[in-house]
Amino acid sequence: MNFxxxxxQEALRATVRKFLADxxxxxxxxxxxxTAEGYDSxxxxxLAGQLxxxxxxxxxxxxxxxxxxxxxxxxxxxxxxxLLCAPFFSTVAMATTLLLALDDDAASKDLLPGIADGxxxxxxxxxxxxxxxxxxxxxxxxxxxxxxxxGPGQDRPGWTLTGEKFYxxxxxxxxxxxxxxAAAAGTSVFAVDRGAAGLVADLSxxxxxxxxxxxxxxxxxxxxLIGTAGQADGPVARMLDLAAIALAAEQVxxxxxxxxxxxxxxxxxxxxxxxxxxxxxxxxxxxxxLLEIEAAKSAAxxxxxxxxxxxxxxxxxxxxxxxxxxxxxxxxxAENIQIHxxxxxxxxxxxxxxxxxxxxxxxxxxxxxxxxxxxLQGLGI
Length: 381
Fold this sequence. Notes:
Elements: H1 7-23, H2 26-33, H3 41-49, H4 69-82, H5 88-102, H6 105-116, E1 122-125, E2 141-144, E3 158-169, E4 176-183, E5 186-193, E6 199-203, E7 213-226, H7 233-268, E8 270-271, E9 274-275, H8 280-309, H9 314-340, H10 351-363, H11 368-378
Parallel strand pairs: 1-4
Antiparallel strand pairs: 2-3, 3-7, 4-5, 5-7, 6-7, 8-9
């Protein structure tokens, strides 16, 4: 079995890397992270139109390209390298995968074409004040409102949502939010449009400004049911697995980039008349970073293959990838700062940008300890 990327996938990597080198240099990352929106609308349109990345895994009947998850892994790895500031993770890895998992044809026809062409930003709101990513811990309530304005063609019962959601990726700019809520029948998913009555979105203060998080408050907010009421546990779990794999690929890209930065600096920075890279301690740091990053690549790539092939081990492999890649990225980003010494702690140096992204990604969708526990449960241990 060959897990290497084929020529077309490598060509995709080269195209995305060149595009991001032009549109997401450090200066642009720093500019966008200080804005409330957190992304450039022109670049977003190019991601959709010029590159077709927003519809990469969207089936052709819904306006997409119908590629597999492996191609998406390539894209996320490159975006992690460049610290791209854009609502791509929330729209593609979370909202698109959840819509596909819910298998609601009417909702897919209504929402996915707009996602694929870049005209509709989307995200998923699940975690609440306790930070849990388990559907069993969802407290937000959903009740029927007795109207018929709940879906495409206005032919479904309407619903209202009440409660709060935290850590919603790009929730302040999303045109549609897929909300995981508790209905009488059980866990369900509802779509809420931006500007809906009773919806308040507040941008959260975070350490990592390259990825925006929001707190959403719902007060009898009108919503429409996606899928079947009470049948969302499985689709939400699949979305979380696929999003964790995408995040792991992004972490691999970031870790690889900080290794390159560290090695490059070790070759030119001199102490005692010789490059610091010639010292055994620095060699050991770089070698250990390389070993961890290569192992992280294997975990993320294998999980991506499992996603593309619908392998039954997907939940286990997703947790392995998320846990290991989180640790590898944080360690690599921290070692990069150590190798740079004092300059690595300054605001002007990019090392802190990668370290902050590494720490935020470590916690997003569950910390490594959570995924290790989930892994043990999945293995029946």
